[in-house]
Amino acid sequence: MRPRLLALATAGLIAAGALHPAPAPAEEPINVGVIANLTGSDVKSSVDMVRGVELAAATINAAGGIKGRPIKLIVEDAEYRPQAGLDAATKLFDVDKVDAAIVFGGSSITIPIAEMAAPKGKIIMNTSASSSKLGNYGGTVFSTLPLDDIVGKALGDYVAGKGVKTAVFIVPNNTFGTGLMDAAAAAFEAKGGKVLRKIVYTEGQPDYRADMQAVLQAKPDAIMSAGYGDDTRTIFKAARELGIDAPWYAAYPSIFYVENEQWMNGKLSGVDNGGLNSPVGQQIKKAYADKFTGDPLPHYYYGYDAMTLLAKAMIAAGTDPAAVKTALIAAAKGYDGATGTIEWDSRGQRVNPPMDYFEYKDGKLQPLQ
Amino acid sequence: MLQVLVNSIIYASEIAIMAVGVSLTYSILRFANFAHVQFAVVGGYLTYVFSVMLGLPIVAAALVSALLTGGFAMLVDLAVFRRLRAISPEGKMIVSWGVALFVRSIVAAIFGGAARVFPIEPPPLSFGGAYFTSLDVICVGATVVAMLALHLLLYRTRVGTALRALASNPDLAVSRGIPGERMISLMWFISGAYAALGGALFALETRLQPNMDLIILLPIFAAVTIGGLTNVFGVVAGALILSLAQNLLISVDFGSLFSTDSWYVPTQFRDFIAVGALVVLLLLRPRAIAGRMAR
Amino acid sequence: MIDFIIYSTTMISIWAVLGLSLNLQFGLTGLVNFGQVMPFAVGAYGAAFAATQGLPVWLGVVIGIVLAPLFGVLVILPARRLTQDYWALITLGAGELFRLTMENVPVIAGGIEGASVHRLGDRTLAMILALALLLAVLLIARRIAEGPLGRLLRVLREDETLAATLGRNPVRFQILVTVVSWTMAGAAGVLYAHVTGYVSPSSFMVIETFVIWTAVVLGGPGSNLGVILGTILVELTSVSTRFIAQWTDLPSDLIANLRLASFGLVLVLVFLYRPQGLIPEARKLYRVDDR
Known about the structure:
The structure holds three protein chains of three kinds.
Chain A: H1 2-18, E1 30-36, H2 43-62, E2 71-77, H3 82-95, E3 100-103, H4 107-120, E4 123-126, E5 141-143, H5 148-161, E6 166-172, H6 175-190, E7 194-201, H7 209-218, E8 222-226, H8 230-241, E9 248-251, H9 261-264, E10 268-273, H10 279-291, H11 299-317, H12 321-332, E11 336-337, E12 340-341, E13 343-344, E14 350-351, E15 355-361, E16 364-367
Parallel strand pairs in A: 1-2, 1-3, 3-4, 4-5, 6-7, 6-8, 8-9, 9-10
Antiparallel strand pairs in A: 10-15, 11-12, 13-14, 15-16
Helix pairs in contact in A: 2-11, 3-4, 5-6, 11-12
Chain B: H1 2-29, H2 35-53, H3 58-79, H4 89-111, E1 124-127, E2 130-133, H5 134-156, H6 158-168, H7 170-175, H8 180-205, H9 212-227, H10 234-251, H11 255-258, H12 270-284, H13 286-289
Antiparallel strand pairs in B: 1-2
Helix pairs in contact in B: 1-5, 1-8, 1-9, 1-10, 2-3, 2-4, 2-8, 2-9, 3-8, 5-6, 5-8, 6-8, 9-10, 9-12, 10-12
Chain C: H1 2-29, H2 37-52, H3 57-79, H4 84-104, H5 106-109, E1 115-116, H6 123-146, H7 148-158, H8 160-165, H9 170-196, E2 198-199, H10 206-219, H11 224-247, H12 252-272
Antiparallel strand pairs in C: 1-2
Helix pairs in contact in C: 1-6, 1-9, 1-10, 1-11, 2-3, 2-4, 2-9, 3-9, 6-7, 6-9, 10-11, 11-12
């Protein structure tokens, strides 16, 4: 009885999946894939990235699309699992026949996708992973996010320049966190600073008291950090509740989730991608406020730039992926987008990102003079 | 050192109430219910809705949500588990996983996957050099009260005695006139209500998100296992032991014992310690702690 | 489209091997193992270790396939004494311990950053290897289940004392089955590493064990073909819901959540509408006068 039930269910699902509404006639749309962690942990970063892409696509379509053809986004969920990310990418490339996919997912999801996209000649726009391994996929992966070493070094130099003698690091246990930490620590120590302890916290935990306890024990002059999302709020909360008074120096403080404005006032400063306050950035921030509540996370801007650059390259070079790849590097030249000016090296990795120094005052990050 | 103790007590009480419900379900229905922790999430969200969105005071919101979640748990049993009483324990575990997946996704669909926080700012307190907040005190206090209430229920009421009889020997209990199915429904209600309370406290202490259950699944099951799967009050001890082990091992400067350099166990090994403690303890004393509730 | 079918077949085969390995161990020993992701991970990390240490690919394959059953013995020996109830949790814990070790000890195979492994460029070859592995595993599982070892283990599962009076040492055979089962899973892990080209701890989280178990209980322990069908059903549900999600115009995160909700619903419904209880394998009745 059950095998028949299963067979019936299987057949039903195949039918459901295969029946496809035929595309509308006239201007055939150009399919662009988007892969993000719509479910699982840290959903807001993904959702905001997708919103950025959607806004960019809508803007481009309103201006005539890609030589008359509208962009059609196909958004897939990576479920915060590499296997699901691969399933999504395969579906997008082999069935939906997209030539390019905009991916948000961290290295563990982006790298396997890049592995499979490279031999197919497809394009991956990376908006989140910052592992240096991504440099190995030159010609396939194009990152709107700069890799860690540049920003980390800037942070380390800055903190040493402030006269800080001892510091403790606290970063999430992923390539973003550890990459930034290693670069910043190296720069800090090169200028005479002493790193007392490197604390790497597991993401997604409800309670970081034990980790902040370790910071408290070390009694550093300053705390150096990088991180994003809800975890940072939990970290700050634990720090505040444990009475930790030391100043915080961070890479990308704009993606921190400040838990208590008063407590944080004047305590946090750092190095960020200055481009987020660019004219384009301000404009699309307003567009976000019109449609949604709250502030967008920076991945909104990275997603917007990824889609815009991709479209720009497609308009210039048509839809042949090989031609688009060459056109992408050119498309970035002179592009001043939501995340500032984007310059790509030959691997498609971002170099010379506009860096600015910020301080948290009166409820928001203000640029330091 | 006092701070480590304080941290451990706070963490233990965060998970203890939820763990208790798992143990309760296990002792009567004999399977590890993965949906239970999702009940806690539902309770947390209901508390949020009633207090933040509808303006009720927190305590009232938590109690209302406990009642509603208890009812919800009963419904889940009626709709799903009652029909599956005869299947194997692993089958029930997988079904409970399916229920958890369904509920988690619906919660995320309604409220969005992003985390929410309760807009409270408990004043920080300090005692003997250790820092905590008034919310922490309330959380620990609530746990103690909840445990006492459960103890009273289980050991001082007829209903409680019936539940314990059912846990210890279902056939005998039923043959002596204890209405099995009704007791089971009651058990689901109590489990659900306690889960909701635990979830609300947990969300107040940390944050509220739909996949909260996946994050605390292992610590809760570890606490339950260490304390003894059917020993409802053992889980509190289990939670404490787990929490202490984690916090102590991280905070000791092992390096200074052997040389002048400091060396600490890296904090990311906290999970490793939790799971390792679970495995080691299980291997060392499996039978001594199991089944005490049966008395 | 054809590439997609090749990919799906490859993945379904690998996951079916995992399901069969679990079915073998669980079906014959009755020990509920919630850590089957562990031998899978050990196999994959064998390949990853070889890659990061600069060792040849074949050595990585050997390491993966040899280490997986060793870990199996390591887990089953002490854990066997425990009552059934604790088994699921301890195996779950063991699986997590391995993953956490790989994550937090970067020198072994890259830590959280993961390790790149040689990727099988020829996708058809990958599919053929996966299918071949599936066939081999299926045949082995059948032979064991229907042979004397299988019969003994079924008796053992029902009544340990009886088996002991028959003069067989039950532990040895449970270990043997575990070794075979975990070797199968380890082989699947090695293949998975070379099919995807990258190994990271995120691929072996607790949720993957649930995926395997879902396939096994849907298909029914005791039925190997059922397990394969269960795996196909799981994969098809996952894929077809992606297509269905694509056609609607709702916000993408809402759709993603509804998609997962439907998955949970399907799982529960299939259970509710099955015949009473998980169907045990057909009990063979042997009469004295049968030959």
